[in-house]
């Protein structure tokens, strides 16, 4: 259970009376019976309890998917052609192998999360340990095994990427194809079960609409990333054409825009947060002054009623 120290702020952003804010309040200590808060001002205080993690599984998956793609694209742009140093080229190829596999591993987790949301009514969250074990541990294990099996496979004379000799390139395309097939299978089951839920007598439309949006974005994301690497197969082969190179480059450059559109512009919660941020910037709220002095920090302590000896203390 997560405890947060807050006070009631009557800002202009929330026109319906205000909102809870953590500004100026910190949690000093917390146990099973008491929570001690310290605030630098006097107001109406409270301790909010969250019975579930504030950052959801979907948010974690999307965050690390973007991190993997960002690092992979950054390494690709800065190091793919630096073949002068053999050791440095191997490091670049290994990082590309790791983080591109990581992006597909997080896509697999997104498919599993979607399956749990639709098929499993309860226990729809994945523990962070399992997320990181699959998202980063699985790609790292593949890279380590590949490097031990054929260390010369990392880096070529033309590009800092995986060698085509001895079929070493399939240490990347093998897991990628497996993940794409698994996710396609999961999406088929998900869409089928989603159609069944919509045809039921009493469907939970609010929850089903969320799952439907999640399904559409996940399928679109898989199609774009999967299609990109379909052309990427021909990118580093001798018979590759200029057309394949342009298609691979165009699709690769659109990944960030696609993720921003799907997970930011098309997400109502994110749009509302953008609106709040813009309203704060465009119309800064006027400072409100208390009749009490705010120079000395006051402390709030959980127990349910105000301490009559200290107007700044609160016990819940």
TrEMBL record:
Residues 1-55 form the GAIN-B domain. Signal peptide: none annotated. It is a multi-pass membrane protein. GO terms for biological process: adenylate cyclase-activating G protein-coupled receptor signaling pathway; cell surface receptor signaling pathway. Its main location: membrane. It is found in: Cell membrane. Residues 26-267 form the G-protein coupled receptors family 2 profile domain. One of its GO terms (cellular component) is plasma membrane. Keywords: Calcium, Cell membrane, Disulfide bond, EGF-like domain, Glycoprotein, Membrane, Repeat, Signal, Transmembrane, Transmembrane helix. Residues 292-316 are annotated as: Disordered. GO terms for molecular function: G protein-coupled receptor activity. The chain crosses the membrane at residues 32-54, 61-80, 100-122, 129-148, 168-192, 213-234, 246-266. Belongs to the G-protein coupled receptor 2 family. Adhesion G-protein coupled receptor (ADGR) subfamily. This is Adhesion G protein-coupled receptor E5-like. It comes from Salvelinus namaycush (Lake trout). The lineage of its organism: Eukaryota, Metazoa, Chordata, Craniata, Vertebrata. The gene is LOC120019092.
